[in-house]
Amino acid sequence: MEFEIQLRSVQSVLEFVALATAQHYPVFVGDVRHWVNGKSFMEMFCLDLTFPLTARLECSAEEFEEFRKAAHRFAVK
């Protein structure tokens, strides 16, 4: 399951990685060309943060909704 996010600062990347790391399931973040581990601060900076990204979670629908609510500040509106 996926949703779009925008990470506009180093602080927002740190906060997103902290949220992703707290989950027991895989969290991937990517764009058209690259997908990285959303739990890795270093890998996140391989992406172009000037554009919206897609967060892909491999979890249940309930876990997805909980994560999406917790990550609402990063969601593209």
3D structure, described in words:
This protein has 77 residues and is α+β, with helices and mostly antiparallel strands. 34% of the residues lie in helices and 21% in strands. It contains three helices and four strands. Strand 2 and strand 3 form a beta hairpin. The model has no long low-confidence stretch (mean pLDDT 96).
Search tags:
77 residues, alpha+beta
Helical stretch tally: 3
Q: Uncertain runs with pLDDT below 50, 5 residues or more? A: none
Arithmetic mean of pLDDT? 96
The succession of helices and strands, N to C, reads EHEEHEH
Largest sheet: 4 strands, antiparallel
Distance linking N and C termini:
17 Å
Give the proportion of residues in helices: 25-40%
Q: What form results from the Cα inertia axes?
A: globular
Indicate the proportion of strand residues: 15-25%
In angstroms, what is the radius of gyration?
11 Å
Please count the beta strands (DSSP E, at least 2 residues each).
Answer: 4
Largest beta sheet: strand ordering? 1-4-2-3
The helix/strand class is alpha+beta
